[in-house]
Design goal:
Helix content of chain A: 10-25%
Strand order of the largest sheet of chain B: 3-2-1-4-5-6
Radius of gyration of chain B: 25 Å
Oligomer: heterodimer
Largest sheet of chain B: 6 strands, antiparallel
Shape of chain A: globular
Structural class of chain A: alpha+beta
Distance between the termini of chain A: 27 Å
Radius of gyration of chain A: 24 Å
Strand content of chain A: 35-45%
Strand content of chain B: 35-45%
Order of helices and strands of chain B: HEEEHHHEEEHEHHEEEHEHEEEEHEE
Number of strands of chain A: 23
Chain lengths: ~550, ~450
């Protein structure tokens, strides 16, 4: 997704011309700060000061988030460490509602006076907006949590692992890849986040949470001896996760590097695909991104209601009154779940960024649209539907902000394709397919602003004939119309074939924010899909 | 946290007092440098203050403001180096950052590509800071939003969604070898999408300038509204190769992609579209139509971009493509040294020189073609040819016999800037864009090209 204007301001004219990214020098880890942990009473005092100031200035609702994000990115290419980027950002943001209008302000200065100034600034922002408001915001009720703590259970905090160990692992993995004949270039990297955040709301919530994220990855490039072709393989059978350093160790980069390098070399001599219609067997390492783009995004309620029209877009799953309980998204075997509880998932949390305990809910039930992703502001928009279902109207807990300096808004939870009842595997589905293409790993992806028309590439493509893989293909992408595509799904894997993919960098909102999200899914077959050849020469 | 140590920064630099001045940045660098025991220390201080206003479905939605400041410190011992970065700028934190970066630098492996810090540089002056923008209030932005909200509301069948963001920022670089670079800029950006309430039409317009007073809000609102009305009830036409007139915004999204592949090192390694089969690169070869010239120039009055790159290397006017010939690839300091070339730095702006044909004249000259307002969701399909896919959005029209005759359904394309700029027919005047998908300071013309490759239809509005 595009960079936001603010990112430019921050980076001050970062690389236009798209010439590589803005050059931030390599960072090693930052020193441990001596400051108290976020559950220290001093932070509660500061938070309360902001809430009091907002109330005195006229806010009927306010919340304050204090957060400290530590990020680490270590990158190596061939036999050299390129970057050890370790950065920290610490600050707070105050969100207020003044007679139904939102205001937000944020600052890096955690002082009592600044708490008051920023709260008043947020109120001033809300007042300016209120002057041109037509429909005041109404929040769905929430049960406050007076004192809560939650922490992603990790075996190994990535920031406690010595840099030397991480560097050695990446260089070893690179060396293993370069041992494969024809593999010319390799990059490897690991990314980590530890976020500690405190949320206090004027309706009585005070919670402290610790979030971890980890992603190891590699990219191997093979170049033809006569410079006529080059092909790369990304390690995206290893997904980013809401885990600690154990995820890196479990990913076995050194052991897998040889395979990725071999695949990259093999791709140079793979057959270029013939255009046409094929049955596609999509591996979960590929399908998660199709789920993300063609199901998770269009079922965001703000998009469906036009609130993202100016950037991320709207949705074909709209208006809700014509969709809920009516629109057939796919076959009966299709069940799509929203949740923030799956172990190791990127969206997992104890409370969302407005103090709601997230719930697990079915977005698509037996192929029919059943619900949308919501926040406290949005849930009342579906009041009629929840009443019809005999349910209360409350948020599903999908409020999220990427950091202290950004306002929280609706972001997707983990959105997953649930396994089928029949226990069958990727291999079983291939064996049942007469003529098709099997795709592993996510590649190029593009979808329109209402999520109808999409085009997806992949990492590895295999031709299926008579239930068997007969060879590798390249230059493959498929084009689809979302409801047609999902309605063509006729086989899905069982529980044992479930895999959770995901991404750190899902963009939405203005200023644009990144959300980290996981998508579980099972291998599935789609009938008669349009495949194009991307190896155009002129 | 309530008893903070005294600040290195002067009292007038409290967070609500705007961005860092050159004097304050230099004073901070001098104090941090005094704490250093390493061979060299390099510092970067960024500060920013931004405010934004958002509206959608004819309502004000989320809006806010942010103040932040961040310091990065790199200590080096020979070829070993390490960086610590923080946004906590208290004395204690800075001392800790310096000592920790030193400790870590000693532990770091030797970096075979490490370059010595730059000495003092000379930069061209660029004034991209305007008080008119820096002094803005939320009320100013709300008032600007009314230019879209009022007509959309009163029309009864239009829905406006827009975003206004303004701010000021500074970046300063310094080291103990005499380098000091400072640039400050303001920014004002307005983007607006107007949709018809029946969901069949959508129009987009935008404007961007460092100087708020240069933004014509009424004009942007009028353009988006007109496009929304014109784009109602689009008809489907067959995908395929079309003569296409791309407005500057759409040109920017595609042409800017060239920059992603213009790194000399990747080419020397055999993995870029500028590799010659058999080895070597295409510098000096004609790669696109001879009317195409693409430059980077911080001082261009339409660009006004930062005159140095992230290393502190001075950026002056550079020619990337001149009259269709690839003039240069970009060299980092390390790769330039290794290859015996001059380091180019990394340009922070791009301008494709325009022509004189108006959009109206392009339309009049077209028996059958498609007019494209903007593009969306561009993603790489094949790095060997810069083949990208993406879609048209918010105003796509059929041209028949020199006239816009009807709105058409959006298309997915699979196209490359290299292919497209070889099929050039006409060039319009260049304008400053309000943000491509990749962003940055971008100036582009409208163009007319033949054989643009639309590969499928989208029902999306």
């Amino acid at each position: 997704m595009a960079h936001s204007r603010r990112e430019f301001l921050q980076l001050s004219s970062a690389a236009a011309l798209g010439l590589a990214a803005y050059r931030i020098p390599p960072y090693y880890r930052i020193p441990e700060r001596d400051a108290p942990p976020l559950n220290d009473p001093k932070f509660k005092e500061l938070a309360m000061r902001a809430l009091d100031a907002a109330k005195s200035a006229g806010a009927e609702y306010s919340d304050v988030r204090i957060s400290q994000n530590r990020n680490q990115a270590i990158q190596a290419r061939e036999h050299r460490v390129q970057a050890l980027n370790d950065s920290e950002t610490f600050g707070f943001g105050v969100r207020v509602l003044v007679r139904g209008a939102w205001g937000f302000a944020a600052s890096r200065d955690l002082s009592p006076d600044e708490m008051v100034r920023v709260a008043r600034q947020a109120v001033a922002q809300a007042e300016a907006n209120r002057a041109v408001l037509e429909r005041p915001v109404v929040l769905a009720p929430v049960t406050p949590t007076a004192n809560g703590t939650w922490r992603i259970p990790v075996e190994s905090d990535p920031f406690d692992v010595p840099v030397e160990e991480k560097v050695a692992l990446l260089l070893d993995a690179n060396a293993a890849a370069l041992n494969v004949k024809g593999a010319k270039f390799v990059t490897s990297a690991m990314f980590f986040l530890r976020e500690e955040k405190t949320l206090a709301t004027s309706d009585g919530t005070y919670v402290v949470q610790t979030i971890f994220r980890a992603q190891p990855r590699m990219n191997v490039t093979a170049v033809a001896p006569d410079f006529s072709d080059f092909q790369s393989i990304q390690s995206n059978d290893i997904a980013p996760r809401g885990l600690g350093y154990e995820h890196v160790r479990d990913s076995k980069l050194v052991e897998n590097a040889t395979r990725w390098a071999t695949e990259a070399v093999e791709k140079l001599s793979a057959k270029s695909v013939e255009v046409g219609r094929y049955d596609l067997v999509l591996h979960p390492t590929h399908l998660w991104l199709t789920v993300h783009e063609s199901i998770a995004h269009p079922t965001e309620l703000d998009r469906a209601m036009g609130y993202e029209a100016n950037y991320a877009g709207t949705s074909f799953v709209s208006p809700p009154e014509k969709m809920l309980g009516k629109f057939r998204y796919g076959p009966d075997i299709m069940n799509i779940q929203g949740d923030r509880v799956q172990q190791g998932s990127l969206s997992a949390c104890g409370w969302d960024d407005e103090g709601v305990v997230p719930e697990t809910f079915l977005i698509i039930k037996k192929g029919i649209v059943n619900d949308y992703q919501t926040t406290r502001e949005q849930a009342p928009w579906l009041d009629w539907w929840y009443k019809k279902q005999g349910k209360g109207t409350h948020s599903h807990g999908c409020s999220y902000s990427q950091s202290w300096e950004d306002i929280q808004f609706q972001r997707m939870p983990n959105v997953s394709l649930l396994p089928g009842e029949k226990e069958q595997s990727y291999e079983d589905i291939i064996a049942a397919t007469d003529r098709g293409i099997a795709i592993m790993g996510d590649g190029s992806f593009s979808i329109d602003q209402q999520r109808y028309n999409a085009q997806f590439g992949g990492q590895l493509f295999y031709e299926i004939k008579g239930g068997k893989i007969v060879g590798m293909l390249k230059d493959v992408a498929y084009q689809m119309r979302t409801p047609d595509f999902w309605n063509s799904m006729d086989m899905i894997g069982g529980k044992k074939s479930y895999f959770m993919g995901g991404a750190f960098n899902d963009g939405k909102g203005q200023p644009s924010q990144s959300n980290a999200v996981s998508h579980g899914c099972v291998p599935s077959r789609f009938r008669n899909i349009n495949v194009i050849n991307t190896g155009r020469k002129a | 946290m309530s008893s903070r140590p005294h600040r290195l920064l002067s009292p007038e630099m409290a967070p609500d007092a705007g961005i860092v001045s050159p004097d304050d940045a230099q004073a901070l660098f001098a104090r941090v440098a005094k704490l250093s025991k390493a061979d060299t220390i390099e510092m970067q201080l960024n500060s920013n203050h931004t405010g934004n206003t958002r509206f959608a479905a004819n309502q004000m939605s989320t809006s806010g403001s942010v103040t932040d400041m961040q310091l990065a410190v790199q200590s080096s011992y020979g070829a070993k180096h390490a960086v610590v970065v923080t946004n906590d700028l208290t004395d204690d934190s800075l001392a800790r950052a310096v000592s920790e970066s030193e400790a870590l630098a000693k532990l770091a492996p030797d970096d075979p590509e490490a370059m010595p810090p730059l000495g003092a540089q000379t930069y061209v002056p660029v004034n991209a800071y305007f008080d008119s923008t820096a002094q803005l209030t939320p009320a100013d932005r709300a008032k600007a939003a009314i230019t879209a909200l009022a007509p959309a509301r009163s029309a009864g069948d239009l829905l406006a969604a827009g975003f206004i963001i303004t701010g000021e920022s500074s970046v300063a670089l310094g080291n103990t070898k005499g380098l000091f670079a400072y640039h400050r800029a303001t920014s004002a950006n307005y983007q607006l999408t107007v949709r018809t309430a029946d969901g069949t039409g959508s129009g987009w317009a935008a404007a961007d300038h460092p100087d708020w007073t240069q933004l014509d809000f009424r004009n942007v609102s009028d353009r988006a509204i007109d496009k929304a009305k014109m784009s109602r009830n689009p008809v489907a036409i067959e995908p395929g190769r079309y003569t296409v007139i791309l407005e500057p915004q759409a040109v920017g999204d595609i042409v800017q992609l060239l920059g992603n592949y213009s790194d000399a090192r990747s080419t020397d390694e055999g993995r870029s579209p500028f590799v010659k089969t058999g080895g070597g690169n295409k510098v000096g070869e004609k790669i696109v139509d001879d009317r195409v010239t693409i430059i980077a120039d911080p001082q261009d009055p339409q660009l006004m971009s930062q005159p140095f790159d992230g290393d502190g290397l001075a950026l002056n006017r550079q020619l990337f493509i001149e009259n269709g010939v690839l003039k240069q690839l970009f060299y980092t300091r390390f790769w330039a040294k290794k290859q015996g070339k001059v380091a180019t730095g990394q340009p922070a702006s791009i301008k494709m020189m325009g022509g004189t044909t108006s959009l109206d004249d392009m339309i009049k000259s077209t028996p059958r073609g498609v007019l494209v307002t903007r593009l969306w969701y561009l993603r790489e399909v094949d790095p060997r040819t810069i083949l990208y896919t993406g879609l048209t959005r918010d105003g796509t029209f059929l041209i028949e016999n020199g006239k816009l005759t009807k709105a058409v359904r959006n298309f997915r394309f699979n196209e490359s800037p290299l292919f497209m700029l070889n099929n050039l027919e006409m060039l319009g005047p260049s304008v400053r864009l309000a943000g491509t998908e990749q962003g940055g300071d971008i100036v582009m013309p409208s163009i007319k090209v033949k054989d643009f490759n639309f590969t499928s239809l989208s029902e999306a509005v």
